[in-house]
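Class prep. Protein, please:
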Amino acid sequence: MVDVARHAGVSLKTVSRVVNKAPNVQQELVNRVLAAVDELGFRRNQLASALRSGQQTATVGLLIEEIANPFYATIAHVAAEVAAGFDSLLITASSEEDPVREERLLRDLCARRVDGLLVVPAGYDHAFLKSEVEQGIPVVFLDRPAGGLVADTVLLDNRGGARAGVEHLLTQGHRRIGILLDTIGVYTMHERLGGAQDALAAASVPYDAGLVRDGVRDPVTAATAVAEMLDSADPPTAFFALNNRITVGVVQELWRRKSQAAIVGFDDFELSHLMPMPLTLIAYDTRELARQAAELLFARIAKESFWPRTVVLPTQLVQRGLQ
């Protein structure tokens, strides 16, 4: 603003009054200041102004796990749409499943005085956010619950969806079902594995550790795990993949071998209908997950008072691939 004042030949206080639309400023001075603003390309720093005045900054933070994953990309897209409807800007960051990085990023977003936070948690202890919440920054968790903090949460019915998927395989006569997951340390994996175990136990199918593989993080490791299981003395006749990337690897290996093993996978995904073999997927509305979480956050920002709530969205079985 110093440059604007010098260019317009007025005081810094006059520039401040014009920019902030204060009353009782001579029109001739207003015109000079606005002309200087236009010529110099001056832009008011709305965030700095809000921080000084203690007002809201019209920004919200979103912390997701992996920005390249279509699931999280959809969440970011919808959250940005909702934020725009409230004249707010979405700031997105990725924790890369690292709890230490997650805490650092969340503290940084709070230091920037965002009006609220949407968080897909990587860690299990979010007590460090308690002081921020008490100071007025609302937090809504989605896809996974928080740890050490009472907060609004929007989840999928991971356990129920997995149970339904395995029950589908059981009704087809399968008893040896290979289960592939990333890590039991991730909430969604834990819940989905629990749902599969519920269905198998209800059908009196005995536990076989050789049919459960963890550490399956991508299509390559999924294909390798499937190959090893199919080469065993008593191979599975069906596979349950606990996320979309694992499903792709399962399909690749079964198609390569021309295997007739059945597939159920958690998460629908783009082009799933073009997979070269039939498969059943556990689908849900990712956009609705993000929409409900974002709208819940803006209700909190608007100071709506209600008990912290947990919303659980349903899943459904869908048929994909070339039948």
In short: The first helix runs from residue 2 to 8. Residues 96 and 108 are 16 Å apart (CA to CA).
